[in-house]
């Protein structure tokens, strides 16, 4: 394990990326735990206020992201300074993206249905960070054996193929399948060969004169959403907490 870490993480200069990703995920999990305790009225935590203004944690997150980003650019890829900057950047990014929905809607929607977008963005960001981390790039690695070159070549070819299939899945309106398909084999393949979702670029381009395919696409999308909506919501509730119930008189 130590040899693998040295050859594939430390030697290519990916240690700051590993630290940034780890601190990003850990910050999100700890932040969600604290906010859920505050929401439940448990523990010693409470909202931060200054002059009667609620200071959202996206504010220190932006400050830490800027500091960590500039320090990482100045520090290069190696050394203690770059690793420390990566940790600061990861913490800041975790705080910022935990309130992504607030930035998007310019409203405090943290515990609303719209606030689920923050959890989705964090999961996608962590997945893309893992993809960058696990990419076995030969650049920066010295004295590669023939076997290591072949292994890296196979990985690069596999990632490239998955990426092309993910593009097809993306054009078919399957965003999550496209994102995770880059990382997980066969996921993008399934998304690429199945019917496109209604309203996607693929459907508008190829289903315009095929009413049967269009109708089948709509039926399949309805069944898929009905089947997976509850498990997806349960996972999001487990990660980020259940949103507040919508008032019955909302919108009146």
UniProtKB/TrEMBL annotation:
First and last residue of the signal peptide: none
Keyword S-adenosyl-L-methionine: no
Entry's transmembrane regions: 15-34, 55-73, 79-106, 118-141, 153-171, 178-196
Superkingdom classification of source: Bacteria
Keyword set, alphabetical order: Membrane, Transmembrane, Transmembrane helix
UniProt-recorded name of the protein: Integral membrane protein
């Amino acid at each position: 394990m130590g040899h693998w870490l040295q050859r594939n993480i430390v030697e290519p200069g990916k240690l700051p990326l590993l630290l940034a990703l780890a601190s990003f995920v850990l910050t999100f999990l700890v932040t969600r735990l604290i906010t859920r305790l505050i929401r439940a009225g448990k523990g010693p935590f409470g909202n931060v206020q200054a002059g009667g203004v609620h200071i959202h944690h996206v504010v220190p997150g932006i400050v830490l992201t800027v500091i960590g980003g500039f320090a990482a650019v100045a520090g290069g890829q190696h050394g203690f300074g770059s690793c420390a900057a990566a940790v600061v950047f990861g913490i800041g990014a975790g705080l910022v993206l935990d309130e992504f929905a607030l930035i998007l809607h310019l409203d405090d929607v943290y515990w609303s249905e719209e606030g689920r977008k923050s959890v989705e963005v964090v999961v996608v960001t962590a997945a893309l960070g893992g993809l960058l981390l696990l990419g076995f790039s030969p650049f920066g690695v010295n004295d590669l054996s023939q076997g290591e070159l072949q292994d890296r070549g196979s990985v690069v070819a596999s990632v490239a193929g998955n990426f092309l299939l993910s593009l097809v899945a993306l054009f078919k309106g399957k965003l999550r399948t496209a994102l995770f398909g880059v990382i997980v084999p066969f996921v993008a393949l399934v998304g690429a060969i199945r019917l496109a979702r209604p309203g996607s670029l693929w459907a508008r381009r190829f289903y315009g004169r095929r009413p049967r395919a269009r109708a089948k696409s709509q039926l399949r999308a309805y069944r898929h959403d009905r089947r997976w909506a509850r498990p997806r919501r349960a996972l999001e509730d487990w990660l980020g907490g259940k949103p507040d119930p919508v008032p019955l008189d909302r919108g009146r």
